[in-house]
Specification:
Elements lengths: L3 E14 L2 E12 L13 E3 L2 H21 L6
Parallel strand pairs: 1-3
Antiparallel strand pairs: 1-2
């Protein structure tokens, strides 16, 4: 498994279709060298500022509300 270090610079937009939420972002993606402190668990990391994290939460809330609005009343 390849691991990456992903630094989010800016969230541009979010949309949903066919059960998937897509986010457009400006990001720096670099291969991440394996380190000893990961104890053999390869994983990628996502880094963002607090402001970008707040924007992500707001975009996700808006997209989830849009998905919920499309559901029939009996499924809510």
């Amino acid at each position: 498994m390849k691991t990456f270090s992903i630094e989010v610079q800016r969230f541009q937009a979010a949309s949903n279709s066919h059960g998937q939420i897509r986010a457009r972002v400006d990001a720096i993606v670099q291969p991440k060298p394996a380190s000893a402190d990961e104890a053999g668990q390869p994983s990628s990391s996502l880094v963002m500022t607090v402001e970008n994290a707040r924007v992500l939460v707001l975009l996700l809330k808006a997209q989830l509300a849009e998905i919920d609005a499309k559901k029939a009343r009996s499924q809510r």
